[in-house]
Every structure is written in structure tokens, then in C-alpha cells.
Amino acid sequence: MRITRKAVLASVASVSVLALAACTGAADEGAGDDDNAGINTDTAINIAWNQPFSSFNGESITGNATANNVITYMANSRFNDYNHELELVQDESWGTYEKVSDDPLTITYTYADTAKWSDGVSAGPADLLLEWAAQSGKFNNVEPEYDDEGNVTNQEALDAGVYFDAASPSVALIEETPEIDGDSITLVYSKPFADWETAIDNNLPAHIVAQRALGIEDAQEATDALVAAIQDENVEDLSKIAAVWSDDWNFASLPDDPQLLVTSGPYTITEFVEEQYLTLTANPDYEGDKTAVFEKVTVRYNGDPMGQVQALQNGEVDLISPQSTADVLTALEAIDSLEVETSIEGTYEHVDLQQGNGGPFDAATYGGDAEKAKKVRQAFLKTIPREKIVQDLIVPLNPDAEVRNSFTQVPGSPMYDGIVEANGQGEAYGEVDIDGAKALLAEAGVPSVQVRMLFDPNNTRRVNQFELIKGSAAEAGFDVVAYTVQTDWGTDLSNATSFYDAALFGWQSTATAVTESDANYRTAATNNYFGYSNPEVDALFDELQVETDPAEQERILGEVEKHLVDDAFGVTIFQHPGVTAWNPAKIGNVSKLTIAPTIFYGFWEWSAGEAATEGATE
Questions:
Q1: Staple partner for 300: which of 242, 277, 415, 473, CB 3.0–4.6 Å?
Q2: What is the per-residue DSSP string for 466-492?
Q3: Angstrom distance (rounded) from CA 240 to CA 135
Q4: What percent of the residues of the chain are helix, what percent strand, and what percent coil, each to the nearest 5?
Q5: What residue ranges of the chain have pLDDT lower than 70?
């Protein structure tokens, strides 16, 4: 067994990054089947993951989860990816892009001849045009409304109107309909935008969305109809297109319709048993540079970290990266013949409070008294034992661990200290203050409050955190109860907001972009599941979008975070310690990133050990 430890976050300025490797292509030496695009068809590996896949549309509000995006990372192609140094690298086998003007900011994307969907249809500008239509919010004219049980109450209005389940502040800056010219599409921003390279990319196949929505069998005719609907702002057609884009790619087991399994990258989904495993099989018709090394990659779902360790020891999986605990690390160190690597990850733990669900933190509960609701939120946050959580659960894994006090910055990053000084979170919630919490509840006139907390019930560390929070909060008069998960906790986070009052989970983002946190805290943005809305925060993010001076970026983010603290949005707790382990007889050249897609990073550069050819997945 070889154990290595890495410190990896000091140079990362943002919360976390979806870092992907440069295009190299996989070697095809020793292939067991030369007629399958050089892929060794005897090779298969198993990877453990903590949360089941639930949606192939990772750009939707419902589908935006790491568990989904690590699958689409292997199954779909993109215009750019991060390499290991967190530099954006274009995948020219998919296409290229260039900035053709700064004023106005104008970007042209051009698809390569090798850019194809797995059903043989060429990818093209219509695919990116569809993503613009979905994420810009330009065509949305209705929003879903829910009853206390979480059921949609305005389905007729949704059916008649246009609702794309997405909200991207960056794509919303592209106000005019992009222009298509052959294999190219040009996007014009309404104002300068510092993070334009990560604003938009390929996602769902436009031809299939159109076929399903408009009932047109021919792929080219369907694509043309979709383009026309967007260009002509045809509400009737856009209503159907939006419904298909939002709903059809949400599935928790293998769908019967093969259209939903069409991909644009090295892999396709071939097996999927609900909450058990998902198998990706190499796409022999893929013509890009990121050729699959393994014929089959099966992702097996197990939310229990020690269960993942046991599965690795038993040979049921070959690569794991469970949530690290002292017991997990000790168990891995005791297993011979493994590669084990520890690190600090880009994910951070936090608690966010629901402000729009009719619960204890919502002003509507108190007749619209926003100040009373804020006092209840502040009181609860004062009880969260952040320091004890870190000392008891994280320091045994990372002796240098400390409470994280920023919503947007990793400890040790250039902006961290300045933003922490500006936001006041350490002063407000640095220590548990039971007397202060009781006083606030007395002022609010609500001495006893029940709080339903959402977290992953299979995650040992989250269960331990919940128990610490529950015990501390009880001293101030809060009855903290575990929310009973309806589907899976990640889906419920966005879809069952009426049923929980506080969420304990981790954010793991997708880019180094300084504007990345915009999606978390702007009114009605993609990751803002909590009804939080502050016009001053929205205006600050508008300012940040066009700011390129790091000093000014730090000032703006400091002001954003000061509002989050003053509004009692939630609290941050700690940076995740990480551990990764794999069987070198089955897989080599594992190069995990500290942030999404973590252990799946650079899958086209993996190497297959001799034992990788033994046994196929079920």
C-alpha cells in the first residue's frame, strides 16, 4: 500500500472547480478487440459513488448535482475542459471558439466535423442555441407553483406557457438571439463578462428535444423546426420544447426510450438499476480525442463510507473516494496492495435556511414580519457548534483544519482573509451563544421552534454533525428533527423545499469563475433553493460580472457576504478533507482533482491493469 498526502487549495481563488484534463487520447496497445475503435472490449472497472444518478440534464435546476455531472462528464463532449493546472483547454475535436470583439463582447463557436451524437447525427449550432434559450430565461413566462405537499398547482398554466427549468445569470447577459452561420454560432453579450469562457457549453441533443416536443421524425427537419421556434419566438412550440428539455432527461433507472440515452462523448449509458449501479459502455462511433480506456465503467452507489471501503477490500469496486472519517482512513491504511491518497478538497460544508417555505425561518409565518423571521434564523445559527464539529470530526483527519468563514473563498486563497474580515461571520457565529439565541427567540416571541433538517442519512459524518447540531440547538429551545427523505436527498434539496427548513450539505462547483457564486445567492438563480432574495446582492453580482480587477472583485464579494451574514442566510462550517483509494491491479494513472469531477477526472488517460480484464459487470 502506498499512502500520499497532498495540499492542493492554496492557489484556488474560488470555492471549487470542475477541472478536466487536456485532450491526449488513450493508448490502444494491447486492445482485445481491434474492430471496436481500439478499445479493449475485455476491460471493465467499478467505481463507488455516494449518491445515485437522477438526471442527464445537469444544466437544469433539478439536475444540477455532482452525482449527475460526473456521469455526463464521461458521456458528453464539451468545447472546453480544465486541465490539472486548472487551465481551460479547448477540445478541438468537438469544436473551437474565439472572442471576435470586446465591444460588444462577441464569441463565435464553431463545431468540428468530428462532433457527432451517438445516433450518428452531427452536432451543431442548434445544440448551443437550445442551451441559450433554456438558460437565458428569455422565453420563460410562467413559474411552477406548489401546495404544502409539494405538488404543482398550476399545471394548466405551465402546459400553456413556457418554462425552462433553468436560470443562468451569465447566459441571461446574451439578450439577443444568437446568429447561426453554417457550423458556427455567434453570441453577443449585453455587457462585458469576465467569465464568458465558462458561461455556456453543449448539453442535450437539440434534434431529439425537437423530435420529442414537436412530433417530427426526421432529425434535420426537427432541428430546423426548433431553430425556427426560437428565432420566431413561437410560444406554442417553445412551450413543448421547454417541457421536454426540463423533464424528459430526469430518470432514476434505465429508460425504455433509447433516444434519452444518446450522448456526444466517449461513453453511453447501457445499464442502470435504480439506486444500485449505472454502467457506461464505450461508444465505438466516437471520433473525438478523449477515447475511452475501459470498455465498461460501472458506477456503484453506496452512501456509507465504510461500506465503500469494504467493497474495495472485497474487490467489488476498484476506485473509491468516500467522505473521509478517521475510521475510514484507518481501515484503508490496514488494507494491503492499495494506492491511498489524502488531500484537502474544494467542497465545503454549510447549513442554509429556508426563507420561503412557510416554515420557522420564513417571514410569511409571522404575518410578513421579516425582522421577526430574521431573529429566529439568527438564533438558530448561534446554536450551530461549528468549532466542535471541526475539532471532533475534521481535525483527526487534518490537524490544520479550521472553521471556514467565507461563502465564496477557500481558506488560504488570495481573497479569503480580506473577505472574512469584511463579512463578519466569525464575529456573529464564531462561538455557540445559547443565551444570545434564547434572547433572540424571546424578542421574536417564539421560545420553542421545530426545525426540519435535510441531510444525507447514509452519510456517517453528516449524521454525526446533525446530532451535534440537534443537541446544541435544544439548549436554546429548538427541536431539530431529521427530514425524512422522499426520493433522494439531492433531488429533494431542490424539489421538496416545503418539507425542510434547514439543509446540511456541501457545495462543489464547476468552474474557477469569480462569478460562480452568483448562481447560489442571486434571486431565483439555479442553486438558490431557499427563497433568499436581496436586491442589493443582485446588484452587486451585476457589478461583479463586468469587474476584472481582483481588488474590486474582493470588495464586491466581501459586500455580498456581509449581506448573507446580516440576512442570516446560513453558515459555513469546514473545508472537506478527502481520501481516495484504488486497486492498482485494475486501474492506473488516477489523478483526482480536489473538486468535481474528482476521481473521474482525465478518464481517457487512465490505464488498465492486468486484472481489469477479469470479469464483466452485471
A1: 277
A2: HHHHHHHHHTTTEEEEE---SS-HHHH
A3: 16
A4: 35, 20, 45
A5: 1-41, 148-150, 509-512, 594-595, 612-618
